[in-house]
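Good morning C.,

I know you're traveling, so I'll keep this short. The sequence:
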Amino acid sequence: MARPDELVFAPLGGVGEIGMNLSIYGLGNRHQRAWLAVDLGVSFGDEEHLPGIDLIMPDISFLEKERKNLMGLVLTHAHEDHFGAIIDLWPKLKCPIYATRFSAALFEAKCAAERNAPEIPVTVVPSGGRVDIGPFNVEFIPVAHSIPEAHALAIHTDAGIVLHTGDWKIDPTPTLGAPTDEKRLRELGEQGVLALIGDSTNAVRDGRSPSEAEVANTIIDLVKSAKGRVAVTTFASNVARVKAVADAAKAADREVVVVGRAMERVVQVARETGYLDGVQNFRSPEVYGHLPQDKVLALCTGSQGEPRAALARIANDDHPEITLNRGDSVIFSSRTIPGNEKAVGSIINNLVLQGVEVITDRDALVHVSGHPRRDELRDLISWVKPQLLIPVHGEALHLHEHAKLARAAGVPRVLVCRNGDLVKLGPGDPGIVGEVPSGRLYKDGTILEDSKSRAVIERRRMAFSGCAFVAIAMTAQGELVDEPEVDLVGIPEKNRAGETFDDIVFDAVMSTIEGLPRARRRDPDALAESVRRAVRAVINEHWGKKPPCLVHVLTV
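The tokens, ready to paste straight into the viewer:
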């Protein structure tokens, strides 16, 4: 009798971190498996540790090797951390993509805005619909989240059903879209769910996430009581929040001016897909200055402190059309993503110095998370009754707390894994059975680099300690043609004694060359290495840091 196919799971991103989500499911045996990918997202570069890096993406080398067995890529929803890497990485895979209407439309708009984006076809699946993708039957189950058409995926296979939650929460009163489909999730629980692969973002927070309806009411109150101009910033993709802001503006007899390309793009897609039906038309930034101060509301990008987004430019008094003055108000209808605190704090401080009233989620209920807190996680477990739970979408603490909660809730098996772990889900006992290649790719301008890239490593060093450049011209006999040239970048001008580093380094270069035997002076590589070591040592002696040193030896 033939052995039944094995169902395996491997996260290639999004486990032990928040962002850069990519999960894969395999069906078959060790020698031959069909693969299904879920989401393909980015996380964002950190200028402190990764200077100049715009985006971080999952390493897909494993999927490239398995390309002929990759049946498709399914999108749970259209947030950047779930679909932001597709334009860059899909050409390496060229697999079919499946998404619901809003996600497909937002992706199409993203491609249209990107220079030289490849043509990437997307198959649209109705919300609540099912589609066969190789041996996988994938069902799109509506869940509440902070973007339209977020879905959990019920992946039906001969080895059992897996519920991949994506990002979700339980919101009984969403202001836009369907609530989480409790009825269908309970039905799956009765059918029998082999594994629940679940969002852990808010697993450390007790209780339940408040509803979008509560935020909408707060925003109405704040906008109606405002005296001067009002600006609201939020995640561009949060269409429910955009609608709440529009409703607040209408209640206060204000016009909405949309500021920022990302916001304009989402608003256009939301109108095309019917999510802003009945909402008044918005105005362009050009009319902002012509409207009375108590009749305008600016809806801006830049809630995360992005330096070129609308709000940063407004706060720096650098925006061509939008200005704010003493007595005006700015509402941050968002939370600051970890790592962005300095940038957001800088914008808030600039606004406060201009006399602008700043309201954040510390002051009023102007934002709620799109992720489940602990009581919601317990509810889902009770509905689905999984045999196995694997926490994903979270840092180590989030995964640990989710696992602990699941064990206390009576889940028979709970397994915590890392990116790259290959997990057998069934049949039989689940467990980590191997490893697949995983890692990170860095988008550096228009180029994708891996984590071992010279550019990434060297730039980090240069950001910390600058760089020294030395050019030396030598004769074939090992004599100097002229004085060496020294150029120091990002290195202090003088040491503590007031001596210039240019002179210190020049003297070190000259004494090194003069102290070398003629044979080593005639060898460009040996000469360059001796000078490099000497320069780094002397700078370290006077500064306490060893910068990279590039030595160019020209033989004439």
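Safe travels,
E.
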